[in-house]
Amino acid sequence: MFVIKILFEELIENAIQYCDKPQPCVKINYKELLNIHQFSVKDNGIGIKEEYKERIFVIFQRLHAQTDYEGTGIGLAICHKIMQRMGGKIWVDSEYGNGSTFFFTFPKPMGISNKVIES
Fold it and tell me: pTM of the full predicted structure?
């Protein structure tokens, strides 16, 4: 699916862009749950303060000056809209200064087996 590719590109690019460590680290995980697919993208970047966790998904909302980090403030808003259109959701778990993990889920098509797989 093309939209999932866009989602991963945005999350991985952000993980690299917002890393203040000498070596960026990005980990991708997948879980197949009863009725949904769940992915996560974890990084070792700058993290997000608790009060900004919802704001980052609003279009043109930036947390940093343009001189600190490049960007338009639309990438995560696009990710949010993609998940809405797919009947899924996206959220972030983050500790300021210690990276972020972005999760997104979307429903399985009807008729897919209900086995549980963790990787």
Answer: 0.79
